[in-house]
Amino acid sequence: MKNTEHLIRLRRIFTQVVEAIVIGLALYASIQVTQPDFVKLITAAPKARQVLRELLAPDLFTRESEVVTVGVALPVPCGSAPEDEGRASGPRLEVEPKCAAERETVVVRGEELGKGVQVTLRWRLPDGNTLGIQRLVTDAEGNFEVRVQVRPIVATKGGQSARIEAEVTLPGGRITPSQTLRDVTDAMFVTIFMALLATTLGTLLAIPLSFLAASNITRRGRVGALVYYLVRTLLNLIRSYEPLVMATIFALIVGFGSPFAGILALVIVTTASLGKMFSESIESIDPGPIEAITATGANRVQVILYGVVPQILPDFLSFTIYHWDINVRISTIIGFVGGGGIGDYLSKRINAFEYSKAGTALLAIILVVWALDFLSAQIRKKLI
Amino acid sequence: MLRVEHLTKIYPNGTVALRDVSFEVPDGEFLVVIGLSGSGKSTLLRCINRLIEPTSGKIYWNDIDITSASPSEIRRIRRQIGMIFQQFNLVKRSSVLTNVLSGRLGYANPWLSLLGVWPVEDRQKALRALERVGIADKAYQRADTLSGGQQQRVGIARALMQDPRLLLADEPVASLDPVLAHSILQYLEQLNKEGVTVICSLHFLDLVHRYATRVIGLKDGVKVFEGLPDEIDRTRFKEIYGEEAQEVRAASL
Ligand SMILES: Nc1ncnc2c1ncn2[C@@H]1O[C@H](COP(=O)(O)OP(=O)(O)O)[C@@H](O)[C@H]1O
Ligand SMILES: [Mg+2]
Residue B70: CB within 6 Å of ligand 1? Predict the structure, then answer.
């Protein structure tokens, strides 16, 4: 009695040890094969931080800048030309004194130019040429004050005095979508419509196939059974291929970066997947109404339209919307393998190290996927 | 006149559901088929309109051979044969009116019916049929919002749309409580009085006595009784339902 108990416990311990060894070996093998470099994950942190910072600062908007040039005349020497009265308010330039002799130093003041704004200060010579003085930035009140030496070259010529000009890039211009945002939006629309087109075509193909692959509709007689098994096998075969692999192959055929490759791959995947889902929905319908409508003398198409369609319509709509949602996700990725759309844009920006543009694309993907997910859930809730 | 000759049905799995069954149903009769569950009643009724293909034997409807009719011929025969079911077999998501109209499919223009377009006469006929079974006010509701008794009345209205000359009723009241059973069977009785031949399978013997003009008893696919309702005495009853069976009356439930 005691002995057998002992034996059983020993055997249990033995099997547990064996299991532990097997699991250990499997883990060791997988590490050997994939060679994960965990150290790298830490040593690469500074680089990762840089990339992340750019990714998290997506390029979305630009401020439309307004360039304003203000100026003031400076007759050299005094009396050689009229002096400027100067404006009392608004962006303006003042000079003190209002005229000067050669080699004197004057004080130039910029007023109400906007705070922290880049100013390029220069001479506009009587002959129309310019001569740079310096670049500066306005203070917190939007003013600046700088001393400028009057050089002989700025002397009045033919009754025309030189002017001091400040070119100011004024803030307060309208905020507009950046070029990147516009490109991303365009690419996103390509992706959404790619998914929409693929879902529509896929659904249209899936509907007849699903009836052929439904045992309660097709598996009647020898021919029916043959068709049923053929279509079902075909759908299963196609479903076992990854859309990415298929998109790559199509991209090789019709050209990289073309949405057409992505659409082809998606249509096939959608057809197979919806065909299978639809056929299961058809197989689960109540046979009673079909029997009843057949008994009225209706033909086969009438039986399907009056007995089958009302039973499957909500399922079909809900599956189709769900698959559109899936297709948008897949088609964002499909661009990476040459399928066009937002994925194509994203992969190109990443390859060009333009991470903030990539960040814009990522943000767009997240928003669109989230919005569609929400939308499709809402619609599907209504259908049930 | 319906004539069934040597009807046998063997299902693909080998079950013999009907074995050499022969009988005749003169026009205007209310024939009730009785028998235990599994005795072959449903199979028999479905062989008559070829929802089930008989294995051998012949069925003649006014001297037309149903069993060898082509697909288009069988559709023309079916549209004169109404059928109602134990589970009502309505399309639950469709409206009551659409369910009733579907009874007219055998007569309808195939293309228009596929578009869901129905002639005004058909719509009026459907509303009249619903009026006749007392649920005209439910026409635009979804079928599954109706109670069991109301659903079976929709089933009858659907059969009425066929202008049937024969009505097959497969345990039409087995899913309803006994009080409702009479109200449904009275509609069938009314139709029968108007000249529609009725073949109806039933469970409860008192219903048989009340409505049948003639009775057929099935046991394990074999016809073990044919006669008038009054001829079913205790011995006959035991023959049909087996030794240990008790006579169950709808009224006693
Ligand atoms: N589709 C089918 N395949 C195989 N056997 C069936 C099928 N339908 C009915 N049967 C069998 O045939 C016999 C008669 O069934 P049925 O006609 O439904 O009897 P009832 O309507 O009197 O209950 C039963 O034994 C049943 O199990
Ligand atoms: Mg039955």
Answer: no
